[in-house]
Request: fold
Amino acid sequence: MFTRTRNILLVLVIFILAAAACGGAPSVETATPEPPQASKPSATPPPSDTPTPAPSPTSEWSQYWVEVQDPYHSLRFAMPCFWQASFPSTDPTGSGAFAYPLQNYTDEYVLDFPRSDIPLEAGAIKIDLNFMSARGMRDLPPGTTQFDFVVALYSGNTETRLVTAQDVEINGQPALFVTKEGTFGLGSFYLFTVTDDLFLAFGATSERMDHPDVQGILNSISLSPGTPVRIPEHKPAPPPDGLAAPCIPGY
Reply:
């Protein structure tokens, strides 16, 4: 009996060992790591055959204004392309103290009117630029302020009196807006400092002072290299009746 039982156990052991040999060692499953995902590049627009447009000009009308350099002073300004700046051929005083006009008509045009009196409705515009010496006109010292110069200018004047003098800024530069009263009523001008001795009066008739072209020229003024000329952005008014402006289409 014992021997039989031992034989049965022996057979069972042999059977188990044989089964193990056939199945091999148990395997251990391991997770296979997935390859790392490359970061997605930011979207880039495909190249285009259409060039990037250049920045548009400030205004389509700016091209019809020209920058002008006064040959005798540090003054620069912009004016419509068909206007005239009547600079003298030489400095008549040798000190820069003289005047000249800016106008939207020719000198010959004036001859068509009696006593050169162009009616306002004709569309003529004239600006007077008058350079004045503080020492030459009122024996004032160098460095005289704009206000002191204006007060001295009208002191003792029996025909014209000073009404107001208001501090203003034109294209980043200090100026004085002066109102006066004379035989023909009220008038005004803007006063700038050019040098320690020289002042510039910018004036037009009272009917024209607020005209867009007059204001455009005024606000473009530069009296130093560090101040850029500010080109107006509006379309210049047409020339007076009977005159053409070929530099502006349709005029």
Remarks:
- Helices lie at 2-23, 107-110, 134-138, 146-154, 212-218.
- Strands lie at 65-69, 76-80, 84-85, 99-103, 126-133, 161-170, 173-182, 185-193, 198-203.
- The chain has a mean pLDDT of 83.
- The two ends are 137 Å apart (CA to CA).
